[in-house]
Amino acid sequence: MKTMGIDVGSILSKVVILEDDEPIATGVIETTGNVSDEIVGLVEKVLADTGLARDQLDFAAGTGSGADLLTGVDFVEDEVTCIGASTGYLLHEIDLAVEIGGQSITSIELDEEGDIVNFMRNDKCASGSGRFLEVISGALGVGIEGIDEVVAQAGSPVSISSQCGVFGESEVITHVNAGEELADIMAGVCESVAKIVVAQIRRFGIQNVYTLTGGVVRVDSVARTIREKLDGKYFEFPYDPCLAAAIGAAMLAGVDLESSS
Amino acid sequence: MLFGGIDIGSLTAQAVLVNDCQISAYCSIPVRPNPLESAGAALGNMLEERGLRLEDVSYIVSTGYGREKIQSAGIAQENVSEISCHGIGAYTLEPQVRTIIDIGGQDAKIIRMDDEGVLVDFVMNDKCAAGTGRFLEVMSKILGLSLEELGPVSLTSRDRVELSSRCSIYAETEVLHYLQRGVDKASIAFGVNRSMADRVMALVRRVGIEKEVVMSGGVAKNVAVRAELEKMMNVRMLMPKVDPQIIGAYGAAILARRAGGGS
Questions:
Q1: B129 touches A: beta carbon within 8 Å
Q2: Does A173 lie at the interface with B, CB-CB under 8 angstroms?
Q3: Do A135 and B128 touch (CB under 8 A)?
Q4: CATH number of the domain at A130-190, please?
Q5: Single pTM value for the model
Q6: What residues are paired with A100 via a beta bridge?
Q7: Which letter, b or e, does each residue of B237-263 get, where b requires 16 or more Cβ atoms within 10 Å of its Cβ?
Q8: Per residue in B113-171, pLDDT tens?
Q9: Which residues in chain A have Cβ-Cβ distances shorter than 8 Å to B169?
């Protein structure tokens, strides 16, 4: 069985094709203005990688904040359900999946069956999200992909006190003007994102066995710091962590197909 | 005898000189990289304009960012919190005031006082840019308007767009989408000012309103935010006859007068 999952996030859009729950092709692009055209192009590219035609796929599901703009999917599922589905299926051991996405941080509690028990989400405020990281590193002239390279040169991180992205932006500029090293400021920003994420996890109260997903987890300086701050046992998501929702959507597409046939 | 007050905000710095309770001079400047420079420049400009020297001022109180540093550098003889200075400043100007809404560049405070001008309660937001001057600054920039234009432009529209995001960063994206769809700037500005007033009201509700109400800080100059707040509170606010941005520095000068032996 072949299914497709499309996750239209606020910063990244992702497409995954699964064959019997194994990814056979994936694609990730930045979400800009013209979502529908971008996704059509990305789907074509990912399909081309597999050598399959669109009608050879059994089912397709969409998810993410821009999923409403999708055409040609069989159904749309919310991200929390999708992330729960992929992390719960792929990592049986975990009781917590934490997604750090472009515009949200979500802690999801999973039971032994991999089903969602509870979740906590901040999508009201950019604090600690991919947007937060993007805005603040942007003020420092560093793109998200370049963060790890910059932080590798850091000595001791400069402490960033702002939890608000707008205030954080001015705070880092103040540090630049005060003559602090770019690498040290950038390391401080990663530390601050990690602190905000860890604060939510502590409020949520579960952190025995966990995994981290979402685009921000691609930034190792952030992901590593989160792991250092948490006591629980960490399991790495077996694919690119930003694909968790897309993979989950494709898995749910398969489940839907099986139950309806 | 002359007494001085200095208030360093996140975006602007103010100095006020009082002779008795009357303002005899004031100066407002954009902040310099550090509070000491800001204090020196605001005070220096004000004194120079009046042909005065620092020795002519009997006592100076500092408030705002870096108020302790300004005192230890010897520019001021004493430092007092912004809450107290805004309270006493507004109370001296309008003795009927019981609630002060002070919205600065990076924070918002609601101050409640009793009939003797004594502080009863206050709430403050300095964690989140929503509901502070920074929100308006970010929004006016993306709208291509100056901060001064944001209020008057908003008043020209009867329509108001709904901003669903509280977060300044997400609201910025929302405004951008409205602009891309060709929505009229004035109705977006109206939505921005309304959203600002909504955030301030959330803070006001936590301490409650008692009449009379005075608004201080730079955002008090935005007519549309004032109008929205008055509608929501169902209260007409008093308008002291001074620049609302100098009320904190004025309060500091009044405290300097008390401490420095002015009657």
A1: yes
A2: no
A3: no
A4: 3.30.420.40
A5: 0.88
A6: A105
A7: beebeebbbbbbbbbbbbbbbebbebe
A8: 999 989 999 999 999 999 999 999 999 999 999 999 999 999 999 999 999 999 999 99
A9: 126, 131-132, 135, 165-166
Q: Can the peptide bond before residue B212 be classed as cis, meaning omega within 30 degrees of 0?
A: yes
Per-residue pLDDT of chain A (261 residues), as tens digits, is 999 999 999 899 999 999 988 999 999 999 876 777 888 899 999 999 999 998 999 999 999 988 888 888 999 999 999 999 999 999 999 999 999 999 999 999 999 888 999 999 999 999 999 999 999 999 999 999 999 999 999 999 999 999 999 999 999 998 998 899 999 999 999 999 999 999 999 999 987 899 999 999 999 999 999 999 999 999 999 999 999 999 999 999 877 656 654
Identify all chain A residues contacting B138, using CB atoms and an 8 Å cutoff: 166
Q: B38 CB near a chain A CB, below 8 Å?
A: no
Which chain B residues are Cβ-neighbours of A171 within 8 angstroms? Answer: none
- HSE-up (13 A, CA, CB side) for residue B192: 42
Distance in Å, alpha carbon of A125 to nearest chain B alpha carbon: 5
B127 lies within 8 A of chain A by CB: yes
Check CB contact of B169 with chain A, cutoff 8 Å: yes
**Which amino acid is located at B66 in the chain?**
G
Tokens of A139: 């003020």
- ipTM reported for the complex, 2 dp: 0.86
Res A36: pLDDT: 78
**pLDDT of the residue at A72:** 83
CB contact under 8 A, A165 and B167: yes
Test the B interface: residue of A161, A166, A192 with most B CBs within 10 Å:
A166
Domain regions of chain A by residue span = 1-78+240-261, 130-190
A1-78+240-261 against A130-190: fold identical: yes
Residue at token pair 């400021």: A185
* SS3 call for A142: coil
- The size of chain A, in residues, is 261
CB contact under 8 A, B128 and A131: no
Binary contact (A166, B135; C-beta < 8 A): yes
Residues of chain A with C-beta less than 8 angstroms from the C-beta of B107:
none
- Coil vs helix vs strand at B41: helix
Domains and CATH numbers, chain B: 1-94+242-263 (3.30.420.40), 96-239 (3.30.420.40)
Report the residue from B33, B166, B169 with minimal CB separation from A165. Answer: B169
Q: Token match 């690498």: residue?
A: A183
Pick the CATH number of A1-78+240-261 from 1.10.3720.10, 3.30.420.40, 3.90.1170.40, 3.90.1150.30: 3.30.420.40
Each residue of A148-166: pLDDT tens digit?
A: 999 999 999 999 999 999 9
Residues 6+ apart with CB under 8 A from A149: none
